[in-house]
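Apologies for my clumsy wording, but could you write out the amino acids of a protein and the tokens describing how it folds?
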Amino acid sequence: MSGNALYTDLSGYYDLMCADIDYAAQSHCVHRLQQLFGNGGKRHLDLACGTGPHVRHFLDAGYASSGLDINQPMLDRAAQRCPEARFARQDMCGFQVDEPLDLITCFLYSIHYSASIERLKACIASVHRALVPGGVFCFNAVDKQRIDNASFVSHSAQHGEGHFRFSSGWYYRGDGEQQALRLRIERTLGEQSEIWHDEHPMVAVSFAELQTLLAPYFEVQVLEHDYQRLAQWDASSGNALFACSKR
């Protein structure tokens, strides 16, 4: 499979792919960032929301939470998980909202799905338009200059009678504005195994370049990629949290 077809065909297994993610910790951390750097408001939108696990946590924390994604099967599952939320099939690089928001999130490095610098610029501009003054944009990102092409993360999960093993890793060739997220999924059922390989085109950007893109719109805080504690980025790690307050 190629492109995002894998996510469409295996949307029912997406939560298994993300089974090792602590959605509650991530959501609570961003709630704290909103209290520290934002206006404390409760109108929230999650970009690239997938099946809606973050939206669920924000709803439970008292937010008027909504989500958007370009993948309809994901949105269908999100609506089942969060029937009280509003979901829309929109491109995060050119979306519109009915009323200004207090908080916009983009978890799981999904900001890189912008796929090019021009589209990333459009995403940032769309977020800025959608936020009230003092509203906050929170997301995580990876620095292209610190990617280890040989590094992969893996985990396994059981689903029904099948055993799944998921692996993912970043790849950057060393120049240009494109990097890739490489995925491998293996499903074993009895004595038979199926393997899917997928490669998603992602925008490659350094943190210095990203801060330059954000600066005209936001006051930017770059934090360590640690959802348990809040600390300024040490300027050496390859991933970070960004908390951006609208000017």
Notes: Residues 23-37 form the longest helix (15 residues). The domain at 14-144+204-246 is CATH 3.40.50.150 (Rossmann fold). The helical segments are 5-9, 14-17, 23-37, 53-60, 72-81, 117-130, 207-214.
